[in-house]
Amino acid sequence: MSNEPYSKEHQEYLKKAKNRKTAIIITQILILVIFFVQWEITAKLKIVDPFLVSQPSRIIKSLVKIYNEGTLFRHIWVTCYETIVGFVVGTLLGILIATILWWSDFICKVLDPYLVVLNALPKIALGPIIIFWAGNNQNSIIIIALMISLVVTIISVLSGFQEVDEDKIKLLKTFGANKFQILRYVVFPASIPTMISALKINVGLSWVGVIVGEFLVAQEGLGFLIVFGGQVAQLDMVMMSILILSLVAYLMYEVVALFEKKFVKWKS
Amino acid sequence: MQQRIVKSKVTGGIIVSKLEIQNISMTYHTKEGETSALSDINLKVEDGEFITIIGPSGCGKSTLLSIFAGLIEPSNGKILIDDKEIKYPCSQIGYMLQRDHLFEWRTIYKNIIIGLEIQNKLDKDSIENVENMMKKYGLSSFKNYYPHQLSGGMRQRAALIRTLALNPEVLLLDEPFSALDYQTRLAVSDEIYCIIKNECKTAIMVSHDIAEAISLSDKIVVLTKRPGTVKSIHDINLEIENRTPLKAREAPKFREYFNTLWKELDVHVE
């Protein structure tokens, strides 16, 4: 197909599709530019109060200042580290627990109401207890992030495991597969899309956990900058941290999406 | 019931059937009570024979096949292969389900060798055997494709080779064509039939399609309504040469068998 020249109609179709894609990207960038430009101008003309809403030029100044102090990347790294550890451990532990529950129907039935309660409970409420137990330090933040993603992972991965086609399991049983082989050859690989969508949800949830954790205990990190900036009425610092946070969170989500492409290439 | 001529292989003067089913009964237990699904089924299948079990829906034909495959334990009775009682898991029996159930995340080749992988039989000989079969049945060039890239017929062929890779002597087919559309179904049943005959396998199929049953089988077993038991056995002799399922449908006697079985099944639309 590819070495044959396309018909004129098809070429036109491809061109149209490409143009549309470019139009979407340009509009997206335009929205961003317009937003920041109007922010800068309205703040400069004092239409909005720059003390309350900050201003792009002030945000850049604040960024340069922190960069010159040499702590910018430290703050970003601390938050990223907590998030990554929180969501990786949360996801792995969640998958492990889901596997145990899949393996033993009895344990699964027994723990069901407890899982429902844990899922309904806002994990942030456990914050003070966790700080008491794990100390006024980074561990608490990671545990809070982990707690938030753990229960969701268990529930979604387990339901993924249970939705695996019974006939596929039956097929393996006719080959004489044992339970471990069923897990390895069908249940696990069939659930990879579910696990990756759990991963995607967990990235977002872990950011929530980490930022809240940093609000509560941290001495550094983006969440700390946000809270500290608020306390000293430095909205520039708050806005800057939020912008960096959005960017990093977006990048991390893209990494997971890349991961998905690599592992579910058999789809579509 | 017609008296049939047994063409069994003779071992030391004693006639031994390939597969013998003795007094199989099955009762399901649920909270609501117990249901008798099968009652006292007796059946003999000769080597290389293609038999089809038909019956009204809910008569327990699929249950019977699951019992043969060792997926369910019968309440009563036993199954013999070559006069020996089967112990499960049994590598002499291969099972084909209604849909191909190829694993989307594995390539065709990887799908075909999955049974070998599970039974730890992946060695030079078995790999060569699989590759030969893939070549013979036109799947070699699709070795590294994923299932969704193949047509329904090819998928079904791949599923059959997956079963044949373990070299079973008896094949169990549970409505193997029911997920395909009508045209594909005719073509695929032709292909599958030829492969089974080519590989000299004994086959037991479950179907609710009378025409399909006649076109494929040497013998048709009719079950009664639940609790299913053998109502009658019909030898299918279409008196044609080089029989294939498609040719069988054109045979003059085809209609005759169809009418007999239709009456036998006693289908009422209630």
Instruction: Report the average pLDDT across residues of chain B.
Output: 82
What is the subunit organization of this protein? heterodimer
For the termini of chain B, the CA-CA separation is: 28 Å
CATH class of the largest domain in chain B: Alpha Beta
Structure description:
The complex is a heterodimer of chains A (about 270) and B (about 270). Chain A is mainly α. Chain A has twelve helices and no strands. The longest helix of chain A is centred in the first third of the chain and has 37 residues. Chain A is flat, with a radius of gyration of 24 Å. The two termini of chain A are about 20 Å apart. Chain B has about 270 residues and is an alpha/beta fold. Chain B folds into two domains: about 170 residues, P-loop containing nucleotide triphosphate hydrolases (Rossmann fold, 3-Layer(aba) Sandwich), CATH 3.40.50; about 70 residues, no CATH class. Chain B is about 35% helix and about 25% strand. Chain B has nine helices and twelve strands. Chain B has a six-stranded mixed β-sheet with strand order 8-9-10-5-11-12, sandwiched between helices. Chain B has a four-stranded antiparallel β-sheet with strand order 4-3-6-7, covered by helices on one side. In chain B, strands 1-2 form a two-stranded antiparallel ribbon. In chain B, strand 9, helix 6 and strand 10 form a beta-alpha-beta unit. Chain B is globular, with a radius of gyration of 19 Å. The interface between A and B is medium-sized, with 21 and 25 residues.
